[in-house]
Amino acid sequence: MRNILITGGAGFIGSHLVRHFVERYPDCRIVNLDKLTYAGNPANLSDVETRPNYAFVKGDICDYDLVCRTIRDNEIDGIVNLAAESHVDRSILDPFVFARTNVMGTLSLLQAARDCWHGEWQGKMFYHVSTDEVYGALPLDGGKFDESTRYDPHSPYSASKASSDHFVRAYHDTYGMPTLISNCSNNYGAYQFPEKLIPLTINNIRHRRAIPVYGRGENVRDWLHVEDHARAIDAILHRGRAGETYNIGGNNECSNIDLVRMLIAAADRLLGRAEGESLSLITFVEDRAGHDLRYAIDSSKLQRELGWRPSITFAEGIERTVRWYLDNEAWIDSVTSGDYMRYYEEVYGRRDRSI
Ligand code: NAD
Ligand code: TYD
């Protein structure tokens, strides 16, 4: 592949993926199409924005004409779709935005790729980045999701991602489009929007604000460092088998309350506070509606077929991540400033329900 379109490249995972590709493949042109919603921030890519093999297009994946123009003008042969509304709590507030971007946006991308590539699939690939949340929830006492686990989404977010996955498979099965899907567990690392558990907790520790833990904090997530996710996407895009799905996970399960305690231990130490000083900030709050109890991923297919493995241990990744958020307060302040609030009000405060 010579010219790769990454959608959602100004967001959390997308920015790490863009950086990884721009640096690792200097002969490959990376075009980043992003709408720059509240979650997208061009500053996440300030270190690569002047590279000759990088281009940015501001736009919406739902805009079929713009997507076609972008594919044609840049002779795109590979598409990696990360553009999405990604936060479960927001999806509970406004499912329509999730259906629009995650379902209709993915469909618009698929159809644009189909029309621009004219059924000449040689050397082409449509890669859709999805989540383990499509599989639903596991009991605390065992089991893992593998690629054959039945879809059973519970939140509007996971329902929208499940739906988009089905459309991607339908384009493979119906039109023969070469597609790939990966379903990954919870990511953590730098540049994650501070509405998600890890950056929110670190930011609240710094400001001595309450740390909201949903329910009793017993829910379990499998955590993977975002740079390991980027390496997995690279391996799958270049060496995965068309039509296949690959699960990606960190083999690193942790309950929310244990995770919050780990973050407190690291942050208190780095901030020079007494050990455990911030434990008093933990505040148990009303549980999330439909809160999935446990996610766990079996990524043995990816490990066996493509030789990928997570390379960053949880202890090392958490230390690096806490340090990054404490060192980059200006970044947190900028992404939670006026523009973000305006976007939030515009999207979540609107009365018009048409997609
Ligand atoms: P994010 O919310 O940080 O970033 C999403 C990006 O998409 C932003 O840059 C935003 O501006 C852009 N975007 C949103 N709507 C758009 C539209 N209509 N057109 C163009 N761009 C648009 O999300 P993230 O955490 O980086 O997740 C990226 C992808 O990975 C998503 O598809 C998500 O479902 C998936 N995923 C995330 C995780 C995780 O833990 N964060 C885990 C597994 C899978
Ligand atoms: P989150 O980071 O929103 O990711 P996801 O819902 O996609 O797994 O949440 C991670 C876990 O942390 C999830 O079980 C919900 C919980 N949580 C809290 O307890 N408090 C919070 O303030 C947030 C945002 C999440």
Helix-strand blueprint:
Elements: E1 3-7, H1 12-24, E2 29-34, E3 54-58, H2 64-73, E4 78-81, H3 88-93, H4 95-117, E5 125-131, H5 156-175, E6 179-184, E7 186-188, H6 197-206, E8 211-214, E9 220-225, H7 226-239, E10 245-248, E11 253-255, H8 256-270, E12 282-285, H9 300-306, H10 314-327, H11 329-335, H12 338-348
Parallel strand pairs: 1-2, 1-4, 2-3, 4-5, 5-6, 6-10, 7-9, 8-12
Antiparallel strand pairs: 9-11
Helix pairs in contact: 1-7, 2-4, 4-5, 6-8, 6-10, 8-10
The structure holds nicotinamide-adenine-dinucleotide (NAD) and thymidine-5'-diphosphate.
Descriptive notes:
The chain has 12 helices and 12 strands. The longest helix is centred in the first third of the chain and has 23 residues, at 95-117. The model is unreliable at 351-355 (pLDDT under 50). By secondary structure, the chain is an alpha/beta fold. Strand 1 (3-7), helix 1 and strand 2 (29-34) form a beta-alpha-beta unit. The two termini are 34 Å apart. Helix 8 (256-270) crosses helix 10. The structure holds nicotinamide-adenine-dinucleotide and thymidine-5'-diphosphate.
Biggest sheet overview: 7 strands, parallel
Number of helices: 12
Low-pLDDT windows of residues: 351-355
String of helices and strands = EHEEHEHHEHEEHEEHEEHEHHHH
The level 1 CATH classification of the domain at 3-188 and 224-250 and 294-311 and 340-348 is Alpha Beta
Bound molecules: nicotinamide-adenine-dinucleotide, thymidine-5'-diphosphate
| CATH superfamily placement of the domain at 3-188 and 224-250 and 294-311 and 340-348 | NAD(P)-binding Rossmann-like Domain
Beta fraction: 15-25%
Whole-number mean pLDDT: 95
CATH architecture of the domain at 3-188 and 224-250 and 294-311 and 340-348: 3-Layer(aba) Sandwich
Helix % is: 40-55%
In quaternary terms, these chains amount to: single chain
Radius of gyration: 20 Å
| Largest sheet, spatial ordering of strands | 3-2-1-4-5-6-10
Instruction: State the CATH topology of the domain at 3-188 and 224-250 and 294-311 and 340-348.
Output: Rossmann fold
Structural class from helices and strands? alpha/beta
Coarse shape: globular
N- and C-termini, Cα separation: 34 Å
Count of extended strands: 12
